[in-house]
Amino acid sequence: MSKKNATSIKNQVAIVGVGESEIGRVPHMSGLGLNAQAAKRALDESGLKPSDIDGVLTAYSFTEPYFMLGSVLCEYLGIQPRFNASLIAGGASPAVMLKHAAEAIVSGQAETILVCAGENRATGQSRDAAVASLMAVGHPYFEQPYGTSIPGFYAMIAQRHMHVYGTTREQMAEVAVNTRAHALLHPNAHMKKPLTLEEVLAAKPIADPLGMLDCCLISDAGGAFIVTSAERAQDLKAKPIYLQGIGEFHTHEHLMCAPSLTEFGATESGRIAYAMAGLGPQDIDVAELYDCFTIVPIIELEELGFCKPGEGGAFFAEGHARIGGRLPVNTHGGMLSHAHAGAAGGLFGMVEAVRQLRGGLGERQVQGAEVALVHNEGGILSSHCTAILANAKG
């Protein structure tokens, strides 16, 4: 992206509505139904009607059998947009969709775009089907034949981080404890019970060093947000949250082709986002970081400049990521304790950032929050997108 184009997005669009579906085990709803419920709640919050939406972006689903999911979702919602796509960048999809939505609005392709994702992953498929779907992430010729799995890939990354930087098993467990404490303050979180460090360390082993509680949830859930022009946002019901900066970067798809097991694309996606916003890590009040496994937000903290390489584990262990700490992280409970259902996992980080910047969340509120950073990653730390949001134009 040229510097001219990057600058043109800043302050040009705003998120004007966010919504979550019911979360947890929701057997009475389909994946499309969860999307529709979240979309309706986002529309209601903004004061918009379905007929006001002229663009729809969604991601993918392991449980819905549709080839053209974007078109199917429009059909289901009764929307006939002039801008529509299903975008697949794994867990990075929600932030990438925000970027595509912003660019489409600024270039005049649409004025108001609904972004939503989610599926009934907890009740819509069997455990064996879920494992088979997740194994497909590995390279079909050079990884899958050897019995690879997503937890196994992330375990290799965790092992390397421990070897190079001395990150400990206990520090990773503190990430899970941190997010659970925040989830207990969220009325719609999947997990409702407190979690101790000892429980995380004693959990069922999955892929050394990761145990069951180092791994994200499997939930039924849908999330949505609505993006429109900054001018249009002024006339709507909810307080607009402005996009200040956004950047993406992609280093590989399969882990065997990753250039490094300790350095990934968040550094570059963050650099682009900071440059567009004219801000730096010191300006961020709250961060919503992708946390499919406990090692991941540790790496993201480091790559996004919130601490030096090798210091991410200590950042969590010393309490700096708690609400009230130096930089509250995943204040909704993240994918480890709030919800994870395909691309909706990262999307809930966007929803929470908007809510934090509007204020009024009670015990969960980060005091004085004016600028938030959301980072999504997809694949095996393959695709990265960083967004910086603010409650006023910068």
Provide a descriptive summary of the structure in words.
- The structure is a single chain.
- 36% of the residues lie in helices and 18% in strands.
- It is an alpha/beta fold.
- The longest helix is centred in the first third of the chain and has 16 residues, at 31-46.
- 57% of the residues are buried.
Largest sheet geometry = 9 strands, mixed
Strand proportion:
15-25%
- Overall pLDDT, averaged? 95
Helix content: 25-40%
- General form: globular
Computed structural class: alpha/beta
Low-confidence stretches: 1-5
Order of strands across the main sheet: 3-2-4-7-1-8-11-10-9
> How many strands appear in the DSSP assignment?
11
Distance linking N and C termini: 21 Å
Output the number of helix runs.
14
Q: What letter string, H or E per element, gives the SSE order?
A: HEHEHEHEHHHHEEEHEHEHHHHEE
Radius of gyration, in Å, reads 19 Å
Describe the structure using short key phrases.
394 residues, two-stranded antiparallel sheet, 11 strands
How would you sum up this structure in a few lines?
By secondary structure, the protein is of the alpha/beta class. It contains 14 helices and 11 strands. The strands form 2 sheets. It has a 9-stranded mixed beta sheet with strand order 3-2-4-7-1-8-11-10-9, with helices on both faces. Strands 5-6 form a two-stranded antiparallel sheet.
